[in-house]
Amino acid sequence: xxxxxxxxxxxxxFEVDLRAGELRREGSKVRLQEQPFALLxxxxxxxxxxxxxxxxxKRLWSEDTFVDxxxxxxxxxxxxxxxxxxxxxKPLFIETVGRxxxxxxxxxxxxxxxxxxxxxxxxSSQSLAKGELPKVAALGSTRPRTGRLIFLSSVGxxxxxxxxxxxxxxxxxxxxxxxxxxxxxxxxxxxxxxxxGDSSSDFLGFSLADVLITKxxxxxxxxxxxxxxxxxxxxxxxxxxxxxxxxxxxxILTGSFIRDGDNLRITYQIVDAKSEKILGQGVIDLKYxxxxxxQDKVSSQVISELQLSLSPSEAERLKSENAVxxxxxEYFLQGLDFHGQHKFPLAIKMLEKSTEIDPNYAPAWAYLGxxxxxDAAFELGGREQYRxxxxxxxxxxxxxxxxxxxxxxxxNLLVDTGKVEQAVPLxxxxxxTNGNSAAAHWELxxxxxxxxxxxxxxAECERARQLGLVKANGSVLNTYLYxxxxxxxxxxxxxxxxxxxxxxxxxGEFHEKNFDxxxxxxxxxxxxxxxxxxxxxxxxxxxxxxxxxxxxLLNGLERQIRERGVGDxxxxxxxxxxxxxxxxxxxxxxxxxxxxxxxxxxxxxxxxDPLLNDLRSEPEFDEILQKARQRHEAxxxxxxx
Length: 641
Description:
It is a single chain. It contains 28 helices and 13 strands. It is 52% helix and 10% strand. By secondary structure, it is α+β, with helices and mostly antiparallel strands. The longest helix has 21 residues, at 619-639. The termini are far apart. It folds into four domains: 9-129, Winged helix-like DNA-binding domain superfamily/Winged helix DNA-binding domain (Arc Repressor Mutant, subunit A, Orthogonal Bundle); 154-317, ABC-type transport auxiliary lipoprotein component (Rossmann fold); 329-401, Serine Threonine Protein Phosphatase 5, Tetratricopeptide repeat, CATH 1.25.40.10; 417-639, Alpha Horseshoe (Serine Threonine Protein Phosphatase 5, Tetratricopeptide repeat), CATH 1.25.40. A hairpin with a 2-residue loop joins strand 11 (251-260) and strand 12 (263-272). Strands 8, 9, 10, 11, 12 and 13 form a six-stranded mixed beta sheet that branches. Strands 1-2-3-4 form a four-stranded antiparallel beta sheet, with no helix packed on it. Strands 5-7-6 form a three-stranded antiparallel beta sheet. The radius of gyration is 25 Å and the shape is globular.
């Protein structure tokens, strides 16, 4: 049933937006993962009352949970307390009730009529888990409106534009560089700032930036930073020089929006990152159901102000998209926002709704497929999600055969599910569309890695980085590790402390025999239990001579992969390595065979991998090695004649 909590929920200096899945402190977003946020929602729904551990297990975790419930609950509580700056010893918000459960003890503030209980109530964590969609206000609603936007004369509009620029830090109000020669070739499009009071429209900030990034990806003379690189700038004050240095760009597009009922005003600037000169700026006033036109208007000005030249094929691809039903497009934008936050189950709900309303919008199918794929890999959704993902990609490409995102997403899925040979032509075709696509070069390097073309893999991945692929979560250049260049591998890792990065940092340190630090990083990664962090924990167990614990964990991971049909044969290969390190040769051989037969046939790596040295005397190892060699050489003949 829908939550009876007001919207938004406020306590102390915190505000909780249940629909967006966001926690804010004094107006600034606080990063909180999905499970701790769901825990907070449940506790808020029963504020002042004890929520038992058993009730939390039933509401927030399945019976076949990936790791033991006690550990996962403890991690979620710890992360929630960190986000709230709370403590177990002197709790202000989250109180532990000995051997029973937890209780929210903070004071919930009352809300005005705009947030009153019962007005368009948002779903609880339980209803979201059951697949119920948040309600989206009908476009063209006849509800009373106050403070409607006034469409100003040219003089009044100029005044409003100047005022709107006040919220954009470090942007000097100087004459535009329009008409002067501009040679800028790299661009970051930052999430738009919501200048209005309606937090339910926050999703537009990231998603409108995302669709612009996708649109401009077809321009080969421009390197646009990917959505994953700009997600961290949501709701933050922008230091122009720092952003430019972090993303290695020459120009930045930033702006804000205000929504009032069916009316939307967007202001934006294109700024030279070095001189902070405004190269172009604009104001777009439109009805909310005309959102699709935003990407056309802004991308046209970007091309004009940066003086980019287009080939005839690029100009054709940049033409206005086919019309899409407004409500379907709104669900699509919400899905993009959740996908950018790695909230894949919620992204799936939004994008499925979008494709139900309008089944002819190709980008919605492409991102629905991407959300299915991520759910399959990271949430262990398994074979059924992979099947749905491939069907979604194929639907997108049937509507728009040269849709770059769909080509790259499908290629990534094909690699992960053992069909590398089918992925390479897709990626090479994408590079014929835009030879300077950093994402396409990266994905091609990923495919080459699986096939054992290691030098070619490094060349493609480094080309992607030259073109502006920043060190973001997921951009791990494993090939350096496979070539035995461990220091280069460690230097190439993203600078964050995500579970994924911590695992790989530990993995590189493990190869360098820096076992103490490797163990620390593996254990930190396992605070967020995933497939990869579980492998790291098993390797940490090997360091501390906890053989039984490590083997038990690996057995559980292998069983989950087998039962749910999770792909990623590269991860299965790492399970084989961990088995070998822990001394279980039989299990190592089994996992290694599965990895090679499932599509990870990196023969040059397998033939010299130091973690497999104890297996080389086993008769089965030579048979597996020969299988990898045969497919590797066939791949080389097919694609590198």
